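anyone else get weird line breaks when pasting these?? whatever heres mine. first is seq + tokens for prot A
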Amino acid sequence: MIPGYYMNKVHWNFVKADGEVPDNILMDLLDHAYQIVLGDLSKKGDHQIEGYFDYVVPPLEGFWWQQDVDGIDYAHKENFHWISVIRLPDFVTKQDFDWAIAEATRKKKMDFSKVEFLTVEEGLCVQCMHIGSYDDEPATVQMMHEFIEQQGYELDITDKRLHHEIYLSDARKVAPEKLKTVIRHPIKQKDTSNF
């Protein structure tokens, strides 16, 4: 679970699965994450979460980066590293999450130890809805970067502030040309002290 910017405008809560694992294990991890979110972290369970209210589980999201690259190099997508996350509402605490992991492990007799709770404070960003194939994202990203330049900002992708995607479409069910993906990039005010 990764906290990130959700309802309190400071951080978001996410369930995290890591891109360093084989696809079949990743699918199991994501299934485990959804089981935690939809099962044990709901009002149906025995554990009462303070401040709980009914909510719709948000779409899958991903954070992407490349080692030793300034920004993003789309020409070498094979070098991307990533994590997949499912955002959670602010009322879910680390203690609630740990309880849900223990409860899911006990009930389902499965290993949920790879599902993590994380906090991300994303900060100032620009975002754009990309419609189409993931392979066509560089054109949308280029337009985003031109926009931030015109507005007096610059890209601020670092080892802590990453390329972020929110998958509004299920790639297993939607044609590539109709996929909807929110692309979000961290930005900062352009430094004009050198001018």
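and prot B, same format (seq, then tokens)
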Amino acid sequence: MMLLTQLPRKLSNKVFTKPKAKLLLILLLISSIGFSQENRDTLTVAKKKRYTYTKFEFAVPIRVNQYAGEIDEYGEDEPWFLPDGVIGRFGMGIKINQFLWVGGNIGIDWKANECLVVAPLFGTIKINSKVSKDFRMYVEPGLGRAMAIGRNDLSGYFKKISLGFEDANGGLGLYLELCQYGFSKNSEKRIGSFCIGLAYTMN
């Protein structure tokens, strides 16, 4: 009985004391560690990959100066363009793929020349095109509703289109925007804006 119990132990001692067997055992351990590390890295990348985004926008509407080219009271030439308020917006959305994003947005638009504060609520479709390793260009049309705060009689559609450049991995971007509100204040002409802005996107 003792011979039967000692036989496997003697065989294992003989096998694993050989140099080739030790080398084989070491290689098996290394390969198993590498495989487990690869699986762990794959799971980490999958967890880090996000399918949503959040963005913040800050813009300044620009209007044409009707007195452009004239001399002001200080003896200086009037500029061609003047700032016409401030715009702040917040949006969240889903990345359908790397080229197409869909989102919802809310904002506060101050139109200084019209003495209006407008709250637009709108959806957007963002079409991205990578122009280099670090930057992408995008076109973003949007459509929704807008209402003047404190003026219940002023409300209507809201539509806009933006063209911009931004960091391909998320971050700061620069954009130009044309937008129009579906109402007017003192004339039949619809109120609109041409804006230059900064956007910050978190992927």
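btw re prot B: The first helix runs from residue 2 to 16. Strands lie at 52-64, 81-83, 85-95, 100-111, 116-130, 135-148, 155-167, 171-181, 192-202.
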